Amino acid sequence: MSYTLLIIALPALMFLILGLLGNKMKPVVAGVLGTLSLAVITVVAYITGYEYFFGGVGKAGGEAFQSIIPLNFEWLRFTEHLHIDLGIMLDPISVLMLVVITTVSLMVHIYSLGYMKGEKGFQRYYAFLSLFSFSMLGLVVATNIFQMYIFWELVGVSSYSLISFYYTKPSAVAASKKAFIVTRFADLFFLIGILIVSFYSETFDFATLTNPDAPFVGTALGASFMGISALSWALMFIFIGGAGKSAMMPFHIWLPDAMEGPTPASALIHAATMVVAGVFLVARLFPIYFFGTPEVLTIIGYIGAITAAYAAMVACAQTDIKRVLAFSTISQIAYMITAMGVSGYGGHDGLGYMASLFHLFTHAFFKALLFLGAGAIIHAVHSNEMKDMGGLKKYMPIARWTFLIACLAIAGIFPFSGFFSKDEIMVAAFHHDKVIFTILYIVAGLTAFYMFRLYYRIFHYENDKHYHHAPHDAGATMSIPLIILAIFSIFSGFVPFSELITADRLPFEAHIDIPIASASIAVALVGIGIATVMYRKKTNMADKFIAMFPWLYKGAANRFYFDEMWLFVTRKIIFNCISRPIAWFDRHIVDAFMDSLAHVTNAASDKIKGLQSGHIQQYALVYLVGALLFVAAFALCVVCFICK
Amino acid sequence: MDLSNYLLMKPELSLTAVFLLLIIYDLFASDKTKKYYFPVACLLFLVHTVYCFFLLKEEGTSFGGMYIAGQAQAAIKCILNVGVFMIFLQANNWLSKPDAIVKRGEFFMLTVLTLLGMYFMISSGNFLIFYIGLETASLPIAALVAFNKYTHESAEAGAKYIFNAVFSSAIMVFGLSFVYGACGSLYFDNLAISMFSSPLIIMGMILFLAGLFFKISLVPFHLWAPDVYEGAPTNVTLYLSTISKGAAVFALMVILYKVFPLLSGVWTDVISIIIILTITVGNLFALRQNNMKRFLAFSSISQAGYIMLSVFNGTQFGMGATLFYIFVYVFSNAAAFGVITAIENQTGKVNMSDYNGMYATNPKLTWAMTLAMFSLGGIPPTAGFFSKLFVFSAAMEQGHTILVFIAFLNTVISLYYYLLVVKAMFINKNSSPIECVSTDGYLKISLTLSMAGILLIGMVSCVFEYLRAVSFGIW
């Protein structure tokens, strides 16, 4: 399986080629090169997936799927045990991620050929897409947590550079900085968590870290700090890192702003791949979470549920279509996180784990489809605002139908893919925690409501608006990815997930729980129904509804003032109480000390300049006197020594 | 006479052959064929350089211990060869000028001759051979320094150099006579056995070392260096500051380790004091220089202080670090002087203030200079960082914490003045920066070589590993 190295190496190479030589090529050449290389990678990833799941490679050792490491080399050695390796590890979740990432990335590459046509910096865009693909693929195949961390940061960097792609726009620059700083802040905790864990386990390898019977688990559980065991602290910190990337509360603030980037990049990074890194992280370390620190897992479940509810409410009140999708992403990822939190281990108990990754899989396709569809619409009407749209169904049939499919999928209507994965999450939550189940249930209704609000406002909602140019469906490069993703959105629910990806890696029998399934379809239909009544035609019902709950609407529209809270904490408290005094100390004490050193040195330099006179008599004198002084000093020493 | 003794001296024989061929070519070739003198000379020397790489493994002694061939000696000879080759490549433009073209053969012959002297210094096992080598190396240098004899500065520098060199030689021989008188031999091996600690021998040793310190230009024996460096033709300055210094450092190290291991307590203290003086004084003077050549002269004085940090610790690691430092220093200085040569030849400007805003007109040269300055200052990932690292760790190994701390503080100062050059080129505004300088192909090769050296030598760990493997120490 060593050909999997290609999956990592090719995008890295492509990044170098496009980054260094991009400006020497024509834009089209750069785009096609990038797309072709990704197509190759996609094929390799599919072959890997087939070989692993169905070709017998994964099950070489018996019933359960094995982790296989085709490549690994030692990069840095600290102690006898502790060393950082770089390698490739294939196990069910990493192979799953390979397939998801390459598929979505390929679609985005093709789509961008049309969407980004004529943009300044087209080559740079493709170079960064390659960098992102490289780092994301490297993240999922990491053999050890430190390698994962390295690629984790690389993902952050490429996300940063793609958000600020339009770097002449101040809002894009601000958004990229915000995304980078917030996620980086969370990553600090991730690093601390890694250090704590590796301190006890003396290794970074996942093979040990995911083994709940390993001896370090006991010692780390035994050591406690402030009444909480070291392992709990470490795993909580690691989860905070994941929460930062996956935009869980309270770190979600960067994701809506990140929509300043080009829409296809948002589809790839901020909808389908990078933002699910947190889910992947929990899944990667799941055994240790479950057996070591179940209380942390419970916290994770609740954080997910609260985030899901919060984001769904906010999504109902947004008017920028990309922001609606951003909050919907937050809400759906929160679903996955919650599912992790309510999961058990082994057999049917591990339903939550399986459902979480199942939802990750299906969500990647329909959310990418929604973003790309939104991109096509924005491309056509040159605006992100709902008020500039409406009645587009007759102009853009392809965008409309594919968008509708994605909306149905995300709302969880049978037989679209979202239905299957969401249903499993609901079942897992129902058996584990009724409170979480209730929250998720309501959120499912809200999801259906805001998605169809979006759909109706874009494609129906006849307002007496006249478009300057009649909008029309985009060309083939943009339409074909939409259609392919729509097919994925319909059928990916039929993948027999419970036989492939489970917590204990043994297949189990999962079946649709009819009462819960029908209940969630019912609440989705109610949501769709309300949206239909309120937004299909232009009526004043929505305004009336807002008038009934003005505070709720205002709060949701302003994202419940989370950004302001962060600003208050950073600007007012941290800047004033910590940063300013430190800056003062730095300027007046540290700098002043250094400056005075420099002055003294300079003055000394001026003073002794005269010694270099240019007279060789003087040179010879200094030479002789110097030599004789040394002789005198050391010969005398010896004389004294001998006399003694 | 047993001719087989000569078989061990292959590098010297090869160099002598180069020298003879160059003389014959210069004397008997017609003016028409002399057009190719420069490329032929470079090619001949290249052949010699490559040939020496095949001799790295030769070991043995001949002429009863007067001549020593060892792997460390072979390695330093190769390093010097590479350096001299780069100097030759840089000289084309200067030697093509009307007043220099008639005597361009002399430049090559004299340089090769001094190099031959250095070879003997390096490989000597007897003070007599050592002294002959030293004089063979230093007398032609005086001629080289005064090469542009019709310019006032060059002639003055030549006179200053010969006076100072003779003075230091005299003191050195004076010191040697004490050692000989006390121990009764000039062979390194015999001396090491019959050595004992007495005021007379210590006096002899210190006077002898002063002569070598003069070559390496350590404080307080350095005063000649800035004047001579400034006055000499730029290529000769490069030769003086790298090749001549490197050879002297190596010879010093061999003599300290082989002849005076018993007195290591004394010379360790002497060199400690000299290191502090050298680094500090070199840095303080370099801070305020405007003439680039004078500036690099003081920089090379302080660099010599850093080299001594690893010389005096007497271990195999120390010698490896020293060899590595010399190797890196050759490349860094070659890059810096290459840029200075290119600019001086075309515009005649050698002041730092002339370099203001150079990036706008000469981006490539600016980058070369920047890399050289980074390497001299010791900024990673350039090779200069690694060489400083090894030198410091060599000194730390022997517990010279305070010394390393002082040296470390001085790197901060040195960084300041090295970055001054970078700042001048990139940041300082200038309404009329140096016009776009065109360089000839040879100089380009030399600059490329040194760039590659600066970037790669540190990274490719086998270089240092090799140099350490061939080194030896007292213990």
Helix and strand string of chain B, N-terminal first?
Answer: HHEEHHHHHHHHHHHHHHHHHHH
> What is the number of helices of chain A?
25
Structural class of chain B: mainly alpha
Percent of residues in β-strands of chain B: under 5%
Number of domains of chain B: 1
C-alpha Rg of chain B, in Å?
21 Å
**Strand fraction of chain A:** under 5%
Question: What's the number of extended β-strand segments of chain B?
Answer: 2
Largest sheet of chain B: 2 strands, antiparallel
Mean pLDDT of chain B: 90
**Considering DSSP H and I runs of 4 or more, what fraction of the residues of chain A is helical?**
over 70%
How would you describe this structure to a colleague?
- The complex is a heterodimer of chains A (644) and B (475).
- With 644 residues, chain A is mostly helical.
- Chain A contains 25 helices and 4 strands.
- Chain A has helices at residues 5-21, 27-53, 92-115, 122-140, 145-163, 170-201, 206-209, 215-222, 230-245, 254-257, 263-272, 277-284, 286-292, 294-316, 321-341, 351-381, 397-411, 417-432, 434-459, 476-491, 514-535, 541-548, 550-557, 562-608, 616-643; strands spanning 68-77, 83-90, 224-225, 228-229.
- Chain A is globular.
- Chain B has a two-stranded antiparallel sheet with strand order 1-2.
- The model of chain B has no long low-confidence stretch (mean pLDDT 90).
- The A-B interface holds A 598, 601-602, 604-606, 608-609, 611-612, 614, 616, 618-620, 622-627, 630-631, 634-639, 642 and B 160, 163-164, 167-168, 171, 197-199, 202-203, 206-207, 210, 214, 220-221, 223-224, 226-227, 266, 269-270, 273, 281, 284-285, 287-288, 413, 416.
